[in-house]
């Protein structure tokens, strides 16, 4: 499905799920999302990680509502805990087969967001691996000069922010030399089309899930 | 221009060819006529800093290959950024006609997208190139710079030389009339450098204007038409005699190096390093203790990755032992106080804001050799003595490299892994850096490994020469 449509669909479903408690809808969404992820050939290890990492959050929610309360309620405990998984897995469904570049292009072409916003977000996303690398490097540089920076040391992040600011300025110059001018019209070489089938599956899925959320507990 | 064979002039094919040549010639002429680059009474200074460019007036020769030389920190990069419209002058005027493209000193920080293909698409969309014209532009840029195998690789994972090839490809796809290149070859191997300079020369013959700044003058003698010398006083063009003098081939260094290591600081046994492919597969290697070893090899072969592994920034398989202990078993915190890396990018080394603060930090763990007196003396030689309160980020590229080297030489280490110490340094600064490394090693008996392409300057101070090729490191006699 078109990335922007998929993003909007996930946004609407998340809103619906957070307004109305429905364990049935949550379970269907979780199973559906896992099947979709498997279908998109996401490695089992990654799916496993998506299930394991939210356990503390889901468990806390469950225990609060179903055990450690004056009126324990299994149903709300389970449906709120499963909500955590709905959010995580739906977001995974959006990003599993969409690269950051395609997503930015889709925001620009399909949703007509300003290109400055789309590419600004993209440039920031591309900075992430650099920042990760930088933090590792800064820690090593510190140790090489007898200064141990732990992961909660403010110095580590101060330095990382300094470097990021420096990179951001270079990046804006880089965008400019590659012809980017704010507000100027751009052509479309890499098209992100919306097909009829995209609209149909968007509408179909939205109807089915809305029905499940509002008419099943 | 396309040569016309006389025998063909009267045939129909010949008529077409000669017409094509004329149109081609006219096109080059037209392109040159439509291009202009000049500055008039230009002055510029960064916030609170003394004036860097003062009342400069200059017209750049269009359609020619110009080389810009001058000492570190004289304002070459700033002038180029002004020409590319990335900085605004406080005074004066810049006349710019035709599209200007620029390649930066820092290879990594000139891309918005993750892969070369996406970057080229991004640039062409900015220029409103139609999707029909895109394939031809892409093919041309890719074929000219030979980056076909890199097109969909993530740029973050590429070596410095590969990134600069990609940067040139983007400018070619954009079809810019004027190419400004700010020390683009600082981390490019000699072969890659020759390749890129030859390509630039071809582009100039096709009507493009090339303006390049560089400290290393190899390979330019036959391709440049103009050399501009940049100094505090301003910019002057060198005459023919001065140009000839400048391009005098330097004597080749032939050394004779040992291939047997007596005592080693590092021993590699069945060691493998992998990035996105296997880069090192070494059966056995000893790295000499208390000596200087130069490591050479093509871009992307894995030299920096070797240093990353030796400074515990990258995992390895097999064994690497340091002074008899397995590297992976040693605690980074204590190990890195003995073994330090001098990174390729100077800003990666800095932990404080100003020059003075950086020096103060290094002094806390300094070696016996670097007394206050010596530090002051070296700072003066580096022209940094009056810059103690300046932010390290506002120093010029060369000044950053010199300061970085100094703070690492002051700190007490037994092993130094120095990655490209001479990139971005002018001739005087290069000599200074080489001298300082040698003095440190003699005084402190450090084990020093250096990665560099500048063999002519560094081999005279080295005891060993290691060549990295085909996933192996081999000692060479010359």
From TrEMBL, chain A:
TM stretches of this protein: 6-39, 51-72, 84-104, 194-216
Alphabetical list of Pfam families matching this protein: CbiQ (PF02361)
Keywords: Membrane, Transmembrane, Transmembrane helix
Main subcellular location of this protein, as a coarse class: membrane
Stored InterPro entries: ABC/ECF_trnsptr_transmembrane
Localization annotation: Membrane
One Gene Ontology cellular component: plasma membrane
Membrane topology value: Multi-pass membrane protein
Protein's UniProt name: Energy-coupling factor transporter transmembrane protein
Phylogenetic classification of the source organism: Bacteria, Bacillati, Bacillota, Bacilli, Lactobacillales
């Amino acid at each position: 499905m078109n990335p922007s449509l998929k993003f909007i669909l996930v946004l609407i479903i998340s809103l619906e799920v957070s307004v109305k408690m429905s364990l049935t809808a949550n379970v269907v969404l979780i199973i559906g999302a896992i099947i979709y992820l498997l279908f998109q050939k996401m490695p089992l290890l990654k799916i496993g990680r998506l299930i394991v990492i939210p356990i503390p959050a889901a468990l806390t929610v469950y225990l609060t509502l179903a055990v450690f309360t004056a009126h324990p309620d299994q149903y709300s405990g389970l449906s709120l805990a499963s909500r955590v998984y709905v959010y995580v897995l739906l977001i995974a469904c959006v990003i599993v087969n969409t690269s950051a570049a395609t997503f930015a292009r889709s925001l620009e072409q399909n949703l007509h967001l300003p290109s400055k916003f789309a590419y600004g977000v993209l440039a920031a996303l591309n900075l992430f691996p650099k920042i990760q690398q930088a933090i590792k490097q800064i820690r090593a540089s510190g140790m090489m000069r007898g200064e141990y920076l732990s992961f909660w040391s403010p110095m580590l992040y101060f330095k990382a922010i300094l470097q990021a600011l420096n990179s951001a300025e270079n990046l804006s110059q880089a965008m400019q030399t590659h012809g980017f001018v704010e507000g100027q019209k751009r052509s479309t070489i890499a098209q992100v089309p919306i097909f009829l089938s995209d609209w149909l599956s968007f509408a179909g899925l939205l109807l089915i899930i809305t029905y499940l959320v509002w008419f099943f507990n | 221009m396309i040569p016309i064979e006389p025998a063909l002039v009267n045939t129909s094919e010949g008529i077409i060819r000669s017409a094509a040549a004329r149109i081609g010639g006219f096109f080059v002429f037209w392109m040159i006529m439509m291009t202009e680059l000049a500055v008039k009474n230009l002055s510029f200074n960064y916030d609170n800093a003394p004036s860097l460019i003062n009342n400069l007036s200059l017209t750049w020769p269009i359609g020619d290959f110009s080389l810009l030389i001058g000492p570190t920190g004289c304002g070459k990069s700033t002038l180029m950024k002004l020409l590319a419209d990335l900085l605004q002058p406080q005074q004066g005027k810049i006349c710019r006609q035709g599209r200007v493209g620029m390649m930066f000193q820092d290879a990594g920080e000139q891309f918005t997208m993750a892969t070369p293909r996406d970057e080229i698409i991004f640039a062409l969309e900015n220029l409103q190139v139609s999707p029909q014209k895109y394939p031809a532009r892409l093919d041309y840029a890719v074929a000219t710079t030979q980056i076909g195998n890199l097109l969909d690789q993530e740029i973050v994972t590429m070596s410095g030389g590969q990134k600069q090839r990609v940067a040139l490809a983007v400018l070619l796809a954009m079809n810019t009339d004027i190419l400004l290149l700010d020390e683009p070859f600082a981390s490019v191997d000699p072969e890659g450098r020759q390749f890129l300079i030859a390509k630039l020369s071809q582009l100039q013959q096709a009507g493009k204007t090339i303006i390049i700044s560089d400290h290393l003058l190899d390979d330019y003698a036959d391709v440049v038409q103009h050399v501009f010398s940049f100094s505090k006083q301003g910019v002057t063009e060198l005459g023919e005699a001065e140009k000839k003098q400048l391009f005098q081939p330097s004597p080749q260094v032939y050394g004779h190096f040992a291939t047997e290591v007596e005592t080693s600081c590092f021993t590699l046994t069945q060691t493998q390093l992998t990035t996105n492919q296997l880069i090192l597969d070494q059966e056995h290697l000893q790295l000499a203790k208390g000596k200087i070893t130069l490591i050479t090899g093509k871009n992307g072969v894995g030299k920096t990755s070797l240093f990353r592994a030796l400074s515990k920034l990258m995992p390895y398989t097999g064994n690497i032992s340091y002074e008899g202990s397995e590297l992976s078993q040693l605690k980074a915190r204590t190990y890195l106080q003995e073994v330090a890396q001098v990174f390729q990018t100077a800003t990666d080394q800095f932990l404080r804001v100003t020059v003075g603060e950086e020096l103060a930090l290094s002094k806390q763990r300094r070696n016996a050799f670097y007394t206050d007196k010596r530090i002051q003396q070296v700072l003066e030689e580096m022209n940094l003595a009056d810059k103690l309160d300046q932010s390290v980020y506002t120093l010029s590229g060369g000044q950053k490299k010199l300061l970085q080297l100094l703070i690492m030489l002051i700190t007490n280490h037994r092993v130094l892994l120095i990655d490209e110490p001479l990139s971005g340094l002018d001739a005087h600064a290069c000599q200074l850096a080489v001298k300082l490394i040698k003095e440190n090693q003699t005084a402190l008996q450090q084990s020093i490994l250096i990665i560099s392409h500048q063999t002519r300057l560094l081999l005279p101070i080295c005891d060993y020469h290691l060549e990295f090729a085909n996933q192996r490191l081999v000692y060479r006699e010359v």
